[in-house]
Design a protein that fits this description.
71 residues; mainly alpha; 0% strand
Amino acid sequence: MPIDTVERFLAALPPHDRERIQRLPRAEQERLADAWETELRQDTDLDTLSELSPPAAEHEAASRVLHKQTG
């Protein structure tokens, strides 16, 4: 069974951010995960990084989303 977008997003976060996001309501987690998916799809720099290291690209996208969405 594939893991959902929220679980993938949480896995891409460092532990301290993951714990903070897990305490948010599910709807907020889903909003952030959707923004993360959009960041992964739309940023061409992440395409290049993803070819070299998919986990690094996911982590970078997660960091960007947190910075943009939560300050």
